[in-house]
Amino acid sequence: MNKHQTDSTSAAFPVEKIRAMFPALQRAGDFIFMDNAAGAQIPQSVLDAVTNHLVAHNVQRGGRYGRSVTVDQSVATARESVALLINAYSPSEICFGMNATSFIRLVSLGIGQMLAKDADGGRDEIIVTDMDHDANIATWLALEPAGAKFKWWRMREDGNLHVDDLKPLVSERTRLVACTVTAHSIGSIVDVASVARIAHAAGAEVFLDCVHYGPHGPMDVRAWDCDYLVCSGYKNFSPHMGFLWGRFDTLKRLPTFREDFIPDEPPYKVEAGTFIYENVSGMDAAVRYLGGPQFPAREQPLTPRQHRRRHERHPRLRADAGARDDEGAEGLRRDHLRRRRRGAHPRARADLLLQYWQAFAAADRRGDGCPADRHPRRPHVCAAADEAAQPVDGQRRDPRLAGALQHGGGSAQIR
Question: Which of 139, 127, 205, 138 shows the shortest CA–CA distance to 168?
Fold first, then answer.
């Protein structure tokens, strides 16, 4: 992408108009939301959808009266919206619940039951990675008492998972490969379609954590050919909630807890108890926002531009060696800025930044979603504070952000 293309695309994107859609940004004043990697703010349309549900039909679904029927309809509409968002085969493959972590645990418990019964014909090996958030590691390691065995697909020094390293790990004993689409810790993007080809050739399944990729690129379960996918809606401009996608037949086979009156069919068998219907209405509105004219063509110009500008103005804020500052940026790093200091605890790092920013408010995130013992060769991966951009982020934040990072000492990496 050349300079003219980048500048013209950015100039055509109405940042201030889009920011006006977000009530929290209008109330924030000088407050800067740097915590996007942990959750995004919501547009007015999402707030309106949540409020409308609570005011107009805040009742239980499954009844014969009008308001209850409306709840059933709103949930069904949200399933259709999310199915379109991720290119699912059917809305019945979309399951709503609290968050991605709880869904990963639900699936792992079901697979654990199948392992204990040897229902998979000796397939007792699960492959996990040292790139993933601990939610997609610890939930699988917890299956050891059920007879699971584990193999580690590890990053190379360039901060990427290479599929050539996966091939020798997969065998006729592999039950499942669990990996992220984008690393929460360093922003690396995984070639998950190749992961699926390798796993399926051996008869194994693929579980994808799409939480950190979701806000930054199109999700497509058909193109990726995965078997399960989880995502947190609240990082995609919705209220706090999550969803699970799984192939219909795969979810149908999966053992789950359900009450006797709940149909033994997806998605109902996966959704234990009552979930938060108003947030599901908000998720539907968020998908409609994501499909609006304001969203396309924003993310990719932002990353190379920020890499160039920040590196030119602040040499210590250097671009990662594995990131390419051209049209090839897609597929390598999501728009993600990591501040690293070897040996520094992420809490201390975030506290140091906040001390510098005390003249104006800011929200930052200590990036400790990956226990250090998972990354014995990369302690700096776990000692990171996190600032990830969203399409509503304006370029005016840069001088204060860069100044805080320079003041914080150590080195910083732009992701």
Answer: 127
Q: Is residue 354 within 8 Å of 401, Cβ to Cβ?
A: no
pLDDT value at position 107?
98
DSSP per-residue letters across 202-269 = TT-EEEEE-TTTTTTS---HHHHT-SEEEEEGGGTTS-S-EEEEE-HHHHHHS-----TTS-SSTTGG
Is residue 386 within 8 Å of residue 338, measured between CB atoms?
yes
Q: Which residue has the tokens 């390293």?
A: 165
Write the single-letter amino acid at 413: Q
Q: In DSSP terms, which residues pair with 205 in a beta bridge?
A: 176
Q: What one-letter code names the amino acid at 160?
A: N
Cis peptide before 304 (omega within 30 of 0): no
User: Contact 187/334 with Cβ under 8 angstroms?
Assistant: yes
Cα 71 from Cα 63, distance rounded (Å): 9
- Specify the pTM: 0.80
Question: Going edge to edge, which strands form the sheet with 384-388?
Answer: 317-319, 411-414, 336-340, 384-388, 365-366
Dihedral sign from CA coordinates of 389, 391, 393, 398? positive
- Work out the number of other CB atoms within 10 angstroms of the CB of residue 22: 21
pLDDT of 165-186, one tens digit each?
Answer: 999 999 999 999 999 999 988 8
